[in-house]
Design a protein that fits this description.
53% of the residues lie in helices and 7% in strands. The chain has 13 helices and five strands. The longest helix has 30 residues. The structure holds adenosine-5'-triphosphate and L-tryptophanamide. Adenosine-5'-triphosphate (ATP) binds next to helix 1.
Length: 333
């Protein structure tokens, strides 16, 4: 809460091509807050370097992620859209929060356990402290809500614990945030293995539908998606493959699971998969058309990065100096 205004904050890493999981679980839900909240949506490049990145690709993806924010309907007049590394307060507050976070707490984070298993050759301190940088992102803006996919819920809960702990020692410092998880798109699963999250860093491109995949590719990927035994389109834990496709279909059409079951009653998996491909391609077509337009104007994207960073810095500075003062850092005006 900044003054009387409630705040929404979220971030996406420029660590790969964005997927329909990122879209349905996160970005699509950002725009809804713009009318009644002060909203900050960040491209979190400092989080992305917790695993090795190729510099030229990181740079390109940073532009692309911002262009995607704009293409998905985030109006830069109503939302503060910016790049994390351009607002130095994020890294500074993260350091301070590191000193108020337990080793044990960070060791319990599922994402750390997963990523350190996947990147066993590079288990760096940044990967371990990833959640305190995320807490800094959120707490700098006195955030009330963080719209995220379900995989990030644990990090937002840790952020709450850190904020409450800090507030106990130094009352009135931070707003304690709530995670907001989109009901339907909370976890889109891989098309190759429906027990695994669809992830932009998956090595198998057929497991993942990217927001920028063309129509034929989208339809082909859904056609090849792993399904379950039987032939009936029904939403049940025994059919994780079909249930995942039903979730995607439901997200893009607004239809409920019983409506979808009825629509495909007596039809086979083949018809259903084609329909999922078609609604996905239809829904993404306008985003893709906008994206090409935004990405073509690098100058405009850079102007947006600058404007966004200036707006964000104003709020970030206020919270950081409040924290520094409470901690006893000397402040000279
Ligand atoms: P990586 O594979 O590099 O870890 P990621 O695909 O998980 O990345 P992030 O940048 O970490 O993507 O996530 C951005 C947002 O998208 C987060 O709010 C996250 O919860 C959400 N998200 C990511 N994947 C999915 C998914 N499969 N279903 C729903 N939401 C998702
Ligand atoms: N860790 C998040 C990205 C992220 C984020 C945030 C999300 C970084 N900072 C603050 C919400 C609020 C992820 O999606 N992996």
């Amino acid at each position: 809460m900044f003054g009387e205004q409630k705040v929404s904050f979220s971030g996406v890493q420029p660590s790969g091509n964005l997927t329909i999981g990122n879209y349905l679980g996160a970005i699509r839900n950002f725009a809804a807050y713009a009318e009644s909240y002060k909203t900050f949506y960040c491209v979190v490049d400092e989080h992305a370097i917790t695993v090795r990145q190729v510099p030229a690709e990181l740079r390109r993806r940073t532009y692309e992620t911002l262009a995607l924010y704009l293409s998905c309907g985030l109006d830069p007049e109503k939302n503060t859209l910016y790049v994390q590394s351009m607002v130095h307060e994020h890294a500074e507050l993260a350091w301070i929060l590191n000193c108020f976070t337990g080793f044990g707490e960070l060791s319990r984070m599922t994402q750390f356990k997963d990523k350190s298993a996947r990147h066993a050759d590079n288990i760096n301190a940044g990967l371990f402290a990833y959640p305190t940088l995320m807490a800094a992102d959120i707490l700098l803006y006195q955030t009330d809500v963080g719209p995220v996919g379900v995989d990030q819920k644990q990090h937002v809960e840790l952020t709450r614990d850190i904020a409450e702990r800090f507030n106990q020692l130094y009352p009135g410092t931070f707003t304690v945030p709530e995670p907001v998880i989109a009901k339907n798109g909370m976890k889109i699963m891989s098309l190759a293995d429906p027990t695994k999250k669809m992830s932009k860093s998956d090595e198998n491109p057929n497991a993942v539908v990217y927001i920028l995949d063309d129509r034929d590719t989208i339809i082909r990927k859904f056609k090849r998606a792993v399904t379950d035994s039987g032939a009936e389109v029904s939403y049940t834990p025994e059919k994780p493959g079909i249930s995942n496709l039903m979730t995607i279909y439901s997200c893009f059409t607004g239809k409920t699971m019983p409506q979808i079951e009825k629509e495909f009653d007596g039809k086979g998996y083949g018809d259903f998969k084609l329909a999922v491909g078609e609604v996905t391609a239809d829904a993404l077509a306008p985003v893709q058309a906008n994206f090409a337009r935004y990405l073509a104007d690098k100058g405009a994207l850079e102007a947006q990065m600058k404007k966004g960073a200036e707006e964000a810095s104003y709020y970030a500075r206020r919270t950081l100096s409040k924290v520094q003062k409470k901690l006893g850092f000397v402040q000279i005006r």
